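Here's a chain:
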Amino acid sequence: MKIWQTFKEIFTTPDLKKKILWAIGLLVIARILAHVPLPGVDIEALRGFFGRNQIFGLLNMFSGGAMENFSIIMMGVGPYITASIIIQLLTMVIPALDEINKEGESGREKINYWTRIISVPLAIVNSYGMIKILQSQQILSNLEPMQWATILISITAGTILLMWIGELITENGIGNGISLLIGLGILSGIPTQLRNTIAVLDTTKIIGLLAFAVIAVLVIVAIILANEGMRQIPVTYARRMRGNQSSGGIDTYLPIRVNSAGVIPIIFAMSMMIFPGVIAKFFETARSPWLAEGAKNIANLFQNNLFYGIVYFVLVILFTFFYTGVIFKPDQMSENLQKQGGFIPGIRPGRETTEYLGRIISRITLTGAVFLGVIAVLPFVVQAATNINTMVLGGTGILIMVSVIIETMRQIQAQLAMRAYENY
């Protein structure tokens, strides 16, 4: 009943309805672009290549099938995400960038501008590498210089267009546009995976499919609990007297979420895991025997599920600590509390508060990091347990979709609450 009431409020609020319809319209345009192909490729051979290769299958899943369609947006928002990773790393090591990032809205606009600029050469390099890989697999024929230029410009323009659509959704619609595009891309691949699973389904795999469904439900519940779970650190603000008026004396809490990093560590780790395999595929056809043999060994190594899962798990944990360290700085939190007259009961302000917050954040981050790592490698475990290889959604895709849905719902509820307050 409450859900229907929420829907009713959404579509009876003109501004909110406009934002939601605007976001839906742009997402539909993005899905149309995913089916606009470039010429010169054997589509059936291309789909077979992505179906056989796990690494490129993941890439195709996150592009919403645009890669196997050889679409103009086949690279998706991957170059933009890679550029964001580069900028965040540079912000950590270059003090000047860190100062710009602290300038508020103007600083964030500068950082976003540089991220967009870096996305262009990255899109060109990624497109070139992908085309060379397809040529090495005899999926794409040799191209003339003009054909090269046309395809590279088209794919790069498609990436920039998709990035622009994502920013338009963020500015004028509801939710984070880039996250919505990634989530929609994952969601759009589910019908095809179900169709492929049903096509090869027999009596021996029915139990596996039921187990897959049960695991999926349990994973969704675990993700929701992890996303909503938090540690509430009590904070007390001292009472201040100004003339006859007093202020402060408030007991509140500082919330630290279990999964404060969201899906960012998994996306970062996936980008790192995909990179060696892509480069190795590129050099498999090198003229130097040692280089070709080394590239083939690396490619085979990253095709090993055990090795891939272990490295992936470790990278997710490392990136979780890295990203949490970027957004949570105990010294700054302690300083801000002290400036505002706040303190944690039983803990002295200053160094002791910093050390206390550091311990709490480290413990919570470890729990969240292990959870994200388990979610990341879950597809390998599920496929081994159920013997179903046609469902590649896995925990990562579910985590992204659930996180995107939860965040979008929060923004919608915030908009409804704000309008209810204004009307009141």
